[in-house]
Amino acid sequence: MAKAQGNEKDALFNSVFAVRQIEIGLASIASLLFGITVMIYGFALMKDPRFPKWLGILALAGGVPTAIAGIVMAYTGFSELDMAINMPANILLLCWMILLGIYMWRNPSLSFNKDRK
Questions:
Q1: Is 55 helix (H, G, I), strand (E, B) or coil?
Q2: Is residue 56 part of a domain?
Q3: What is the pLDDT of residues 75-117, one digit of tens each?
Q4: Contact 66, 38 (CB under 8 A)
Q5: Which residue in 27, 94, 17 sits closest to 61, CA to CA?
Q6: For 9, which DSSP code?
Q7: What's the domain range around 92?
Q8: Residue 69 · residue 79 · CB < 8 Å
């Protein structure tokens, strides 16, 4: 790029910018869909009597801001606002996944394979 001249620099810049915009679009839709998926799991966990309600609430507490961060990312790119929403939400989701795994590990009766022979 340093040796490119005039129009070549413009074309190269526009190509790199286009790739960056595609990256932002894919990241925003991934964040939105991941947040919505976790929210659905949260509602399901809250309805299922085998699981404590707090696991579902924790999923919602991480899923809602993750979905919102996906929308913000679509409009602002990888902005400070997006990261301020997304990073704490991702920490909540990581805690939720670990706690859900621990809960299911300690309660083997929740296994779906118990009826198979």
A1: helix
A2: yes
A3: 999 999 999 999 999 999 999 999 999 999 998 887 666 555 5
A4: yes
A5: 94
A6: H
A7: 11-101
A8: no
